[in-house]
Design brief:
globular, binds 2-phosphoglyceric acid, binds magnesium ion
Length: 437
């Protein structure tokens, strides 16, 4: 049995050049596990708290040296000597040591760094791939020893055109993405996606837009005036590639509506297209898009606390369209429970740092699975070379993954990790089929 000998932590930089926490867990065997924590821009109100050095002038107050100190001074002595395979025990100790509902004492960035580094160290001490260790933990967490849960490659949901807080001042919605639903394997899905990404660039240039500008997640950031233009450009690109819209490739949208919702007036204000809508009006706008374009998935179509709107949206489109709660659920079991009870949404976005430990992430995934909610494991807009989410998606057979576009190496690191996992799983490595064709 390998135990945790020591923890090291340091401040490193993410894809936006902002500080973030890196943790190394050193096993009694000498094996080392390393993890780097990501960071969002369109963060929801219900997410766990990222500890930052707000009062320091260094890095404009975004430093994470306090969180780094929490790892070495507060957490390390509390978890030293623990069994590295006892992920649930380590995470329970982290949660108890923090003692707050949103990880605000230790910082979710400190806590998650440790939680993930421990999983990496456990895998490394066993000489196994991370997804194998995570699959073992997932089986234990779901109590499914008999009915084996085999690792499955996730279908990617890939950013083509970015707006919102990720691409400064063009569209109000955050991402127009594609899902290569017709792919037979993960590598084919990736190849189709790259062809489409290039084709979207060509269509943009052809229409006189600047295709060179890319957003935080590598999606193109042209100055479009209406959401509909973005959908048309993506459909044109599908046709240029010889793909049949909906059968081969479909559209997914992350509306990220929380960020243009004016809570005081109860209105959704889309600046680029000059629309001001109440909840019912926003649902009608989404309905218009769904009717005309090959959209199969909508994320955060409404704001994070617009529960009644969410219930109405789900009653209208629930069976036919995937309705993902990101800011709505914030990977929190308590929020997801509410969603299940109120019939709000039918899928959950899974972001490790919204909740802060691997075990709580498993809890959210298990609750989703037990209630027929789909799960999409997601990166953040601020990412790094860390590829843990690729292994997590495979290990838990989540079915879908959202990493960003096929540009910028913090995104490609994860797509490439999935290529390696596909190879490790063998020639018939299964690709998840969350959507019927
Ligand atoms: C989202 C994510 C990733 P952020 O809204 O789904 O695209 O963005 O990390 O900024 O919250
Ligand atoms: Mg989102």
């Amino acid at each position: 049995m390998a135990t945790l000998k020591a923890l090291k932590a340091r401040q490193v930089l993410d894809s936006r050049g902002r500080p973030t926490v890196e943790v190394e867990a050193i096993a009694s065997t000498g094996a080392v596990g390393r993890a780097i924590v990501p960071s969002g821009a369109s963060t929801g109100r219900h997410e766990a708290l990222e500890l930052r050095d707000t009062e320091s002038p260094r890095y404009g107050g975004l430093g994470v040296l306090k969180a780094v100190a929490q790892v070495t001074d507060a957490i390390a002595p509390a978890v030293a000597g623990m069994d590295l395979d006892d992920q649930a025990g380590v995470d329970a100790r982290l949660i108890a040591l923090d003692g707050t509902p949103n990880k605000s004492r230790l910082g979710a960035n400190a806590v998650l760094g440790v939680s993930l580094a421990v999983a990496h160290a456990a895998a490394s001490a066993r000489g196994e791939e991370l997804f194998v260790q995570l699959n073992r933990l997932w089986r234990a967490a779901t109590g499914s020893s008999g009915a084996a849960i085999e690792p499955v490659l996730p279908l990617p949901m890939v950013n083509m055109i970015s707006g919102g807080l990720h691409a400064g001042g063009n569209l109000d919605i955050q991402d127009v993405l594609i899902v290569p639903v017709g792919a037979a394997s993960y590598s084919e899905a990736l190849e189709m996606t790259v062809a489409l990404y290039r084709a979207v660039g060509a269509v943009l240039r052809h229409r006189g837009f600047e295709a060179a500008l890319v957003g935080d997640e590598g999606g193109y950031g042209p100055r479009l005036r209406q959401e509909e233009q973005a959908f048309e450009i993506v459909v044109d690109a599908m046709i240029a590639c010889g793909f049949e819209p909906r059968r081969d490739v479909a559209i997914a949208v992350d509306v990220a509506a929380t960020h243009f919702y004016e809570a005081a007036q109860g209105t959704y204000r889309l600046m680029a297209s000059g629309r001001e809508l109440d909840s019912a009006g926003m649902i009608d706008l989404l309905a218009g898009w769904i009717e005309v374009y090959p959209i199969i998935s909508l994320e955060d179509g409404l704001a994070e606390d617009d529960w009644d709107g969410w219930a109405a949206l789900t009653a209208r489109f629930g069976p036919s369209i995937q309705l993902i709660g990101d800011d709505l659920f914030a990977t929190q079991v308590s929020r997801l429970h509410q969603g299940i009870d109120r019939r709000a949404g039918n899928a959950v976005l899974i972001k490790l740092n919204q909740v802060g430990t691997l075990t709580e992430t498993f809890d959210a995934l298990r609750l989703a699975r037990d209630h027929g909610f789909r799960a999409v494991v997601s990166a953040r807009s601020g990412e790094t070379e860390d590829t843990t989410i690729a292994d997590l998606a495979v290990a838990t057979a989540a079915g879908q993954i959202k990493i960003g576009s096929v540009a910028r190496s913090e995104r490609l690191a994860k797509y490439n990790r999935l290529l390696r996992i596909e190879e490790a799983l063998g020639p018939d490595a299964p690709l998840a089929r969350p959507f019927a064709r």
